[in-house]
Amino acid sequence: MFNSVKGKTVVVTGGSKGIGKGIARVFAEQGANVAIVARDVEAAEDCAAEIKAGGGKAKAFLGDVRERESMQEMAKKVAETFGGIDVLCANAGIFPSAPLETMTNEEWDIVMNTNAKGAFHAVQACIPYLKQAKYGRIILTSSITGPVTGYPGWSHYAASKAAQLGFMRTAALELAGDNITVNAVLPGNIITEGLEGLGDDYLREMASVIPMKKLGRVEDIGYAALFLASMEAGFITGQTIIVDGGQILPEN
Asked: In the chain, N or C terminus with fewer CB closer than 10 Å?
């Protein structure tokens, strides 16, 4: 699709499952060296093994986006293993539900620390290596929830995803002079391992609100990230791509 990512090193945080795993697979299919970063290193190793079995190049790395030192150590090890870092897909995130009236400080903090501060930690850790690359790419996995829509029980999640976009725009300004672009993908309803266990009726209900009448695939997010990571997208920075099958379009 975009041959310019072939041989590049791509870091995917939260890469062991869900959208992150889809992103990792897409980049591996295009010939990139994929660093799969997760707190559950065994799950990351399983994902890397799947990719390698399919002919791709991947390696698992332990990393907790909530901890600055963990991200710094991860970035160092990835650069030592592959000779540098060209692309960061800051994808790690959580989405627990909690009603606003009863939400605790702890429930708020863990979502913000993982989704918003976690993106900051991953980006900051990778900047020195992205500066050394021929061109650097940062792609954040945000969401339509927060930046565009709302959803009951997700006020903390929505706040974290909107925060990512404010961070993205200023980061794009600060890093433009180093030939590093910073963009975001905003997924709508995407089918992942977690959703598959909720049953066909639930999945059909979710798909019914989408004009295309189907849920997105994790690869759909991967292909959007792939475009933003390509050489061909080098004049795009501080921007967002919504991947939702038209979900936000209807007025009611």
From this structure: C
Residues annotated as catalytic (active site), given as ranges: 157
User: Which CATH number fits the domain that encloses residue 66?
Assistant: 3.40.50.720
Range of the domain at 32: 3-243
Helix (H), strand (E) at residue 241 = strand 240-243
Residue 102: the pLDDT is 97
Q: List the strands of the sheet with 87-90, edge to edge.
A: 57-62, 33-38, 9-13, 87-90, 136-141, 180-187, 240-243
User: What is residue 90's three-state secondary structure?
Assistant: strand
- Once rounded to an integer, what is the mean pLDDT over residues 107-127? 98
Q: What is the pLDDT of residue 134?
A: 95
CA distance linking residue 194 with residue 62, whole number of Å: 22
Average pLDDT score over the chain: 95
Region 176-192: what's the mean pLDDT? Answer: 96
Percentage above 90 pLDDT, the chain:
91
46 found inside a domain: yes
Residue 28 domain-assigned (yes or no): yes
Say if residue 120's pLDDT is above 90: yes
Where are any strands of DSSP class E within 29-101? 33-38, 57-62, 87-90
- DSSP secondary structure, 125-189, as one string: HHHHHHHHSSSEEEEEE--SBTTTB--TT-HHHHHHHHHHHHHHHHHHHHHGGGTEEEEEEEE-S
Q: What's the mean pLDDT in 184-209?
A: 85
Predicted local confidence at residue 205, as pLDDT: 87
